[in-house]
Design brief:
heterodimer, A: 795 residues, OB fold (Dihydrolipoamide Acetyltransferase, E2P), Phenylalanyl-tRNA Synthetase, Chain B, domain 3, 7-stranded mixed β-sheet, 40 strands, elongated, B: 355 residues, alpha+beta, BirA Bifunctional Protein, domain 2, two-stranded antiparallel sheet
Chain lengths: 795, 355
């Protein structure tokens, strides 16, 4: 909401400092997003008095003027404006001045005559569109007076951030009320320049139908239109608005159109009551009704768009059809034009939900719909209508037809709310006196009907505050006006909650620390992706590429790797812990699972000058990471190869995958590997102490010839499972592949660790244990030591 | 068997050898140590063994002299060994330029936003809060209805909602399925599951139908808090959040509360802290106001408590919410929120080291 500080000053009848006004409104809940000084660039412009205007000797359309600019020296100025008149005052830009557009005035010759400055039009000063001639100043100020001092130009616009609960702050009167409460002063509706005040008597309330100025008015849609005031003005003269009115609208960011339209806009910005003026001559059948739109009904709105209406919308209609969409926009056919002589003025209350639905259905949000859907004052239309009539008569003349109408299908009142001072104390934590509570309520315009005899106060809330409905709403008003700053902030002891910590948070933190220790950076990709199998679709996505919820973390991480590649980064190590989504049971929201994923590509370690060659990460780096992270995520995870990838098996199902990944890789990129695992919450083995060995171990390396199809893991498992009491551990320490090997193409070296916990092992014992194990491998797997030679085929 | 020697003057040959220890090389030093102090054949060791057989007086005098000599030898051997060692190391190092870079290893780091969340959670843990989480896909009831959003009201315009292509969930707590627009549905779940006293903080992702630009993202983190009990008031709200701000930022951080509007709290407030960049003098980051908006908060609306079966006359509470993405941007001076989503190794590395 744009607010003019000058306008507010008139309400409070005192000069206001823009920054202070912004600070006060901010502390009341309507902070200023911006403070915009208007016309600050006119400091060089002064009042110039044209003493004479003689024809230019060498040009028909130019004149040579003598201007008194207060400097003591008469200036010769060549001027082309048709309206320059001796004895009149105009804005004058002396030599050296800069106009708002950036033009710098210099002394120069025009067709042989010296020109020392420039007489300006309003447009040249950035004050509107009128460029038909010089801006004739209506002032007696002495020549040389700064323009800003002679004409009230300077203003400041505050761009207020008004919450959806405060429609009253969409008008200057509402903002002035808040400010008055803050300053502790009175405020009142300003007098319009040159007006003695509105004379229209408050119209008498009638039922759903009435008539004024020969126009029959009806509310046919009582749900959509709660109140309808109408007035007829005859004999108005459409023309430009006076300066002050144009300036005022300009200050709130609205373009001046003509005196009638400007009057309706002025009232809207002053009283938060949208108004609409129809050209009475265009009305068919001298009838106006607020009714539901009919199926198939159409209307060309003021923006020139032909719109299809539906029966859920309320329209204003004449005898033949819609002439306006209620609360949203008027129709083009009944628009006020330069030829308009007679007006019908509408001032109504439309149902907020209806207006909201309508403007959404039409995709047409306007200043009016914005206000109606937040709620205008249902009980104060008469003030707005009177103000609008006063303003139109002031600027466009016209006669008000007798008996304007004020229609309402049902008589309603703003609610009465009961407030307990004890509740104020309970919620705010401070005991406020009864008189302080009353002061706060009165300041926002509420009427305190009773004293708290039975522990509660009856409060009638004002019509402009549709947000005040229940007791807690009044508690907030008391807090707001009393001041949040005035409430103490002593930290007091509190008892703990009854909730147990969600273990998922700590679990994710633990996994993060482990992956960081692995040298990976945590990433957080957007959780939306393109379509994938079983993925959940977003109905209203911003982009088709982000039209689904991720079913897996890896595609997002691969995209981030590609972004790194695009920045010439070759070594990328990223992980993410996040939610993935899958279709849920029918009638249930999607299933959400916490996952962990990681990608690695590039050098295994940062380059060091002592290294002879760079080593890139390979499948074994991935497998090691997968094993360590897999064990951390769920100790039961068994890592098994499937195809060219690795799978983590947990309780008979796949709980994770790892392997090489496809990506859009530049030629210099290293292979990309990735893993993804379900995060199990609430699992993990308890760490426990076992006695540390005190006896020495004996190590033996055995190199075995393995048939191509035999997995090393199988041999390890057989050895570990053989029940050999002296065997403590088995590790694979080497592999050799060659076509020259007897009986196969592969030998694998296993390191066996033997130990007895109660004595130092003797060599013969170890020898016996080793041959027992080798004999077992021969029997079970047909595997032999490499140095033993291939078994003879006939054996 | 000869009479054991017990005249201290007989120790003079050993004293002479002691004087020569400082000139021995490494091999000779090792041999001499064994020859003098060796457990089996060392000369001093042998002399010490004779002590028990001496007369008491002689034993005392001779014993003292031998022991003194033994300590002197030990000190001399150690000193010589250290000197030889230092000399060796100096010789070895002569061919090495120790200004050359050391060997590196990959260092990782948590995401800056994760670190901000962890820090916030830690501060609230000190005040007795525990972490609660909940689903990211919710029904309209949990996201709006239970939180006192009036149906089809302009307040909904502040929440541009992403809806999911999933059948409506039936029942009182159902409705269309959406991506939660704030983490507040977890407040509802917590109140429904355990009731007061409640003290939880709720970190998690929230979603809005916002274009992905320098200051908006369609998915972003939030951290909310909820405290509900008997006797909780606006005083506790101000005290708790002010304490948090002074712990999270600097101890002398200025804090102010301004009225605001959220459907699920009343009275509602915004908490500002003195601008962390200019210290309150006014700069571009705070638009010259000297203040930065950090979190929204308020007293839990009685309707929210009632919707969750909590007696709103007996219990009161406060709730708050803030954006770790935004706070991370403020803290690290990040100009564009998208940097936090792009996983750029250079960016993550920059922010990896500091607080």
């Amino acid at each position: 909401m744009n607010v003019s500080v000058n306008w507010l000053s008139e309400f409070l009848r005192r000069p206001l400092d823009a920054a202070e006004v912004a600070a006060r409104l901010g502390s009341l809940g309507a902070p200023a997003d911006a403070i915009v000084p208007l016309h600050a660039g006119l400091g060089d412009i002064v009042v110039g008095l044209v003493e004479s205007a003689a024809p230019h000797p060498n040009a028909d359309r130019l004149r040579v003027c003598v201007v008194d600019d207060g400097s003591g020296t008469r200036r010769s100025v060549v001027c082309g404006a048709p309206n320059v008149t001796a004895g009149r005052r105009y804005p004058f830009a002396p030599v050296g001045a800069t106009l708002p557009g950036g033009l710098r005035i210099e002394k120069r010759k025009l067709r042989g005559e010296v020109s020392e400055g420039m007489l300006c039009s309003a447009r040249e000063l950035g004050l509107g569109d009128d460029h038909h001639g010089l801006w004739e100043l209506d002032t007696d100020a002495a020549p040389g007076t700064p323009l800003g001092a002679a004409v009230p130009l300077a203003d400041t616009r505050l761009v207020l951030d008004v919450g959806p609960n405060r429609p009253d702050l969409l008008g200057h009167k509402g903002v002035a009320r808040e400010l008055a409460a803050s300053y502790g002063v009175q405020f009142r509706l300003p007098q319009l320049p040159g007006s003695g005040g509105g004379t229209m008597a408050a119209p008498a309330r009638a039922g759903a139908a009435g008539a004024t100025g020969g126009v029959a008015v009806r509310i046919e849609d009582a749900d959509g239109c709660g109140r309808f005031l109408g007035a007829v003005l005859r004999g108005v003269r459409i023309g430009p608005s006076p300066d002050w009115l144009a300036r005022r609208l300009e200050a709130v960011g609205v373009r001046s159109i003509n005196n009638v339209v400007d009057a309706t806009n002025y009232v809207m910005f002053e009283l938060n009551q949208p108004m609409h003026a129809y050209d009475l001559a265009t009305l068919r059948g001298a009838r106006i009704a607020a009714r539901r739109a009919r199926a198939g009904e159409r209307l060309r709105t003021l923006d020139g768009v032909d719109r299809a209406l539906d029966e859920e919308m309320t329209v204003i209609a004449d005898a033949e059809g819609a002439i306006g969409v209620a609360g949203v926009m008027g129709g083009m056919g009944s628009e006020v034009s330069a030829e308009t002589r007679d007006l019908f003025l509408e001032c109504a209350w439309f149902d907020p939900a209806r207006v909201r639905r309508t403007r959404r259905a039409l995709g047409l949000s306007t200043e009016a719909s914005f206000r109606f859907e937040r709620g205008v004052d249902r009980w104060n239309g008469a003030e707005a209508l009177r103000r609008c009539v006063e303003l139109i008569q002031l600027t466009a003349g016209g006669d008000l037809a007798p008996d304007p109408v004020d229609l309402a299908s049902a008589v309603t009142h703003p609610p009465r709310i009961f407030l307990r001072p004890s509740r104020v104390a309970q919620v705010l934590g401070v005991e406020l006196t009864w008189s302080e509570i009353e002061r706060c309520l009165v300041a926002v315009g509420a009427t305190v009907v009773s004293k708290p005899d039975d522990g509660r106060i009856a409060v009638d809330v004002p019509g402009w505050r549709p947000d005040l409905v229940t007791e807690i709403d009044l508690v907030e008003e008391v807090a707001r006006i009393h001041g949040y700053d005035a409430i103490p902030d002593d930290l007091r002891p509190a008892r703990p909650g009854a909730q147990r910590e969600d273990p998922a948070f700590g679990r994710a933190a633990q996994l993060r620390r482990a992956l960081v220790a692995e040298g990976l950076f945590e990433a957080a990709a957007l959780p939306m992706t393109g379509a994938a199998a079983d993925s959940v679709r977003i109905l209203n996505p911003l982009a088709a590429t982000e039209g689904h919820l991720r079913a897996s973390l890896l595609p997002g991480l691969v995209r981030l790797v590609e972004l790194n590649w695009a920045s010439q980064v070759r070594d990328v190590r990223l992980f993410e812990i996040g939610t993935v989504f899958a279709q849920g049971e029918s009638g249930a929201p999607p299933r959400e699972t916490l996952r962990l994923a990681a990608v690695i590509t590039g050098a295994r370690a940062p380059a060091h000058w002592s290294d002879s060659a760079r080593t890139d990460c390979d499948i074994w780096d991935l497998k090691g990471l997968f094993e360590r992270v897999g064990a951390l995520v769920a100790p039961g995870n068994a890592i098994v190869p499937v195809g060219g990838a690795l799978v983590a098996r947990l309780d008979g199902r796949d709980a994770g995958r790892a392997g090489p990944l496809d990506a859009d890789a530049p030629p210099w990129a290293a292979p990309l590997f990735g893993l993804e695992l379900e995060v199990q919450v609430g699992v993990g083995t308890a760490a426990a102490y076992r006695p540390l060995p005190v006896t020495p171990a004996v190590g033996r390396d055995v190199t075995l010839l393995l048939p191509e199809e035999l997995a090393a893991a199988r041999v390890t498992a057989e050895l570990a499972g053989a029940g050999e009491p002296l065997l403590e551990a088995v590790a694979v320490t080497g592999e050799y592949r060659s076509g020259d090997l007897p009986g196969g193409r592969r030998s694998v070296t296993f390191h066996l660790t033997f130990r007895a916990t109660d004595r130092t092992l003797e060599t013969p014992e170890v020898d016996r244990a080793e041959s027992r194990l080798l004999g077992m491998l021969d029997r079970e797997l047909g595997v032999h030591r490499r140095d033993q030679g291939a078994p003879a085929p006939e054996r | 068997m000869t009479e054991p020697r017990h005249d201290p003057s007989d120790l003079s040959p050993l004293r002479a050898r002691l004087a020569r220890v400082g000139a021995l090389d490494a091999a000779a030093l090792a041999a001499e140590r064994i020859a003098v102090l060796g457990r089996k054949g060392g000369e001093l060791t042998a002399l010490l063994r004779t002590l028990p057989s001496l007369e008491a007086d002689a034993r005392r005098a001779f014993g003292a002299a031998v022991n003194e000599l033994k300590q002197a030898f030990e000190a001399a051997f150690d000193a010589r060994a250290a000197a030889l060692d230092a000399a060796r190391r100096a010789r070895e190092a002569a061919g090495i330029d120790l200004t050359m870079p050391g060997r590196g290893r990959w260092i990782g780091a948590e995401h800056p936003v994760t670190r901000v969340i962890a820090e916030i959670v830690e501060l609230f843990r000190e005040l007795g809060f525990v972490v609660a989480t909940g689903p990211e896909a919710e029904t309209e009831w949990y996201n709006f209805g239970a939180l006192n959003f009036p149906a089809d009201h302009p307040a909904m315009d502040m929440h541009d909602t992403l809806y999911l292509d999933v059948p409506e969930v039936p029942g009182d707590r159902g409705g269309r399925v959406l991506l939660r627009t704030h983490t507040s549905p977890v407040q509802i779940r917590t109140l429904l599951e355990s009731g007061p006293p409640v003290r939880v903080v709720i970190p998690g992702l929230a979603y809005r139908n916002d274009p992905f630009d320098a200051s908006h993202a369609p998915a972003f983190t939030q951290i909310e808090g909820l405290a509900v009990d008997e006797g909780i008031s606006f005083v506790d709200l101000k005290a708790t959040l002010g304490h948090f701000a002074r712990r999270f930022f600097a101890a002398d951080t200025r804090v102010r509360f301004r009225p605001s509007f959220f459907p699920f709290t009343e009275p509602s407030a915004e908490m500002d802290v003195g601008c962390q960049i200019c210290g309150g003098r006014g700069c571009a980051a705070c638009k010259g106001t000297g203040w930065m908006e950090i979190l929204g908060c308020g007293m839990v609306h009685p309707n929210v408590l009632s919707n969750c079966g909590v007696d709103a006359e007996r219990f009161t509470g406060f709730a708050f919410g803030m954006g770790p993405h935004r706070i991370a941007m403020l803290r690290y001076g990040i100009p564009d929120i998208r940097l936090l989503y792009e996983g750029d190794m250079r960016f993550l590395g920059q922010l990896g080291g500091g607080r």
